[in-house]
Amino acid sequence: MEALVRATPAGLVDLPVAVVDLREGVAAADRVDPAWLAAVDRRRAECRASVVAAGREEELETALHAVALLATEQLDPPDDADVDQHVASGARLWLLTGAVASALSGADPDPFASWAALVTAGWWPVGPSEGRLVVSRPT
Amino acid sequence: MTATPFTGEVADAAAAHAVGPDYVRAVGKVVTSHVRNELAGAVAFDEPAIALAPGPREKWLACRIAMEEYGHHLKFSKLATELGLDDVNAGRTLSVFDYQLTSWAEFVVLKALVDEAEVVLMEELVAASYLPLRNLVVRLLPEEHFHVSFGKARARELVADPVATPVVQQAVDDLVAFTVPFFGRSVSANNEAYRQWGIKQRTNDESRAHWIGRCKHFVEGELGLRFPHLEPHWNG
Question: What is the chain A residue with the closest CA to B64?
């Protein structure tokens, strides 16, 4: 599992892996390394732009529609008023939609593949935060 | 249209068709407006907000909200399909979706005020004669309430910073003006039909007045900002 966590969408991160609960994961998310997050954002945007440039926007939208249909329900926060649960859900949806664009772009190696595998197994990989690589365990 | 207001409950699409084409048309207009507007909301506002978010927490909350709005679109689409409605994505979205979102402050105010308008409209549908619509809004309202509470909480945080206050005030002024038509014209044949068929209970002006009251209380009472003077009467 640690190998999957280290293979972040922004590249390999060599920090001690910390497995935490959801509340601690959200606290860590608030302090996630901004440069790392910007790099993930950039890769996400590049993958999307590459698929669109290849004339496959309709295919991308269809795949995103399928993800939205399944994952939004699957990751529905149990408590409609709990902000932390919404943060954790939104983060995983953000990763999954990035993974869709990445998979369709044909990037090799696929930068989102490892984290997408973690999310679909119920984990929430948060990112590098205060000297640790944080992952929240399935609830 | 029947001479006296319809007071029955309609269990499903087959029963709606048994009531008659005018009933299906009236329910269909309400459902399709939600199909279009939930999608437009997700695309026009919530999705760009993911990039505008100032930090990871806000980014991921915006992402969750965008996906929920899209989910609402899909659920209203399913209702439309069950009713046998054609081309539910055709037609104009409401004017508020013409607004070009350019800042996080605008997104926050939009969630607090424009989603409050959506809540006002949905709350009314909790008593709609068409039970699948009633049941759907009962399921969706907690999510819409969360969107509003998110917007309000972030707006309170923003106005604590004197630098951000004028930006929030501008967003209030702009978005309130854009939202006034959201409820429809004061004189509205559609609204008459909705009330005749027991789909809605309020006139458009009554709904607008309800929204104005809530938003004025929030903007003036909680944010300490100016709420634009508005009359519930609006005919374009």
Answer: A90
ipTM associated with this complex: 0.90
Does an H or E element contain B180, and which? none
pLDDT in tens for each of the 139 residues of chain A? 899 999 999 999 999 999 999 999 999 999 999 999 999 999 988 998 999 999 998 999 889 888 888 898 899 999 988 999 999 999 999 999 999 999 999 989 999 999 999 999 999 999 999 999 999 998 7
Rounded to two decimals, what is the model's pTM?
0.89
- Subunit contact B70:A80, Cβ cutoff 8 A: no
Fold of B13-222: Ferritin (1.20.1260)
What does the domain layout of chain B look like in residue ranges? 13-222
Taking contacts as CB-CB distances below 8 angstroms, the residues of chain B near A94 are: 50, 59-60, 63
